[in-house]
Known about the structure:
Chain A has 366 residues and is of the alpha+beta class. Chain A has three domains: 4-51 and 143-236, Gyrase A, domain 2, CATH 3.30.1360.120; 54-140, Aminomethyltransferase beta-barrel domains (Alpha-Beta Plaits), CATH 3.30.70.1400; 283-366, Elongation Factor Tu (Ef-tu), domain 3, CATH 2.40.30. Helices cover 20% and strands 35% of the residues of chain A. In chain A, β12 (182-187) and β13 form a beta hairpin. Chain A starts with a strand and ends in a 10-residue tail after the last strand. Chain B has one domain (8-108): CATH 2.40.50.100. Chain B has helices at 29-35, 82-85, 89-92, 117-125, and strands at residues 8-9, 14-19, 22-27, 38-42, 49-50, 55-61, 65-69, 74-79, 101-105. In chain B, the strands form two sheets. In chain B, strands 1-2-3-9-8-5 form a six-stranded antiparallel sheet. The two termini of chain B are 16 Å apart. The interface between A and B is medium-sized, with 18 and 12 residues.
Amino acid sequence: MAVKQTPLYETHLRYGGRIVEFGGWSLPVQYTGIKNEHQAVRTKAGLFDVSHMGEVVVNGPDALIFLQRLVTNDVSKLERNQILYTPMCYKHGGTVDDLLVYKKDADHYLLVINAANIDKDWNWMQENAGEFEVKLTNISNETAQIALQGPLSEMILSKLTDAPLSELKYYWFMPEIDVAGKKVLLSRTGYTGEDGFEIYCSPDDVTCLWDTIMEVGRPLGLLPAGLGCRDTLRFEVCFPLYGHELSVDISPIEAGLGMFIKLDKEGFNGQGTLQEQKTNGPKRRIVGFEMVDRGVARAEYPILVEGSYVGVVTTGTYAPSLDKNLGLGIIQAEYAKVGQKIDIEIRGKNVSAQVISKPFYKREGK
Amino acid sequence: MNIPKELKYSKDHEWVKVEGKVAIIGVTDFAQSQLGDVVFVELPDELSTVKVGDSFSVIESVKAVSDIYAPVSGKIVKVNQALTDSPDLINQEPYGEGWIVVIEMSDSSELDDLLDSDAYVQLAAEGGH
């Protein structure tokens, strides 16, 4: 499969981005440096290209009951212009994807899905739509998306729009507003643990929007930010990344996402398994850990307790805001307690680590 | 891109500074910029011996794990312990305080297989491959 480019590809080169392949897409891993960009998002602001994300529109009289079957969270609780985070499961309880559901109207929803899962999710949704009166439309190719993240995001964006940004609450959106003269959908969402916005627009407008936001934000400390810091930022706040903390083999209960599973709503995919896991406790859990001895844990490194394999690292890296080497891993539930001593096998050597509480980082006042 | 004239270079992006029988080894400016922010260096034991091409150290940046290969054979007589607490010296001063080891060479003819600065400039310009 050919590696795909977002509409901002040339822009990334112009801004000095170092391009890597990620999930079938050519995207910048960094511009000036991961630590530098990470710090900018935590203290000022960063601008990300997330145009690779997928978007699917669900229309029709059965839109709500279809979504209630498809996802684990309760879509009926949404008000117009409100957003919901939810896992989407297979019947056996493994995870198809995790996504955002935007309620545009009673019969009109927008789903935002992970880039690497677009084809798989699309097929799964089609398969599940059969008996319902709904129309699904994959608008991924016609939709560009950028994320402005960090404490100064509102201040920066307010220079480019008359929309009342301060009234837009976390996980709500404005379906159509003008930003820098372009029509966009604006939501107060993000994947960094900081305040911020995600901006959905036409691919024809995204370069102009990017340049304009950078121009007004740069003097305030805004930096273009790559995938490298997107990962370290979401990691510090322990947001799961599909393919790491969630997968066909890892259920959202095992991932610690029980609050996004509404077992009391009417039948949905995976309900039986998830109910069983919630009642009896899952056999494995995602835990956070800190390296005690020197070393950096990386995804897929084995986790041991007293010489026996008990799990595997799902994400591990240096955490810039904490200046520590930390990790997330899935381990047998009996060892998933804070303070548990574990070893991470790094290049054939066991290196001490210890289970700590999640999240690793919390923004002030939150 | 800083590529000092007086050093020798390996195709794996290590630099070698020869001082009599010993060779000081580090990674090039090109290598550190490709790696990004270095957060961890796994250092070899002093007095261990290495053969040319052996992986003797590992450098980890936020995103990447990279082996460092011995550009010459010999005995490691000195290890830069400062990298334990300040791995970012590799980013800041790749040819200075960011040096990694000193090797007492067992076969100085191996130096003939290394690149001079002009050849390394060429290699880096081609993207390092």
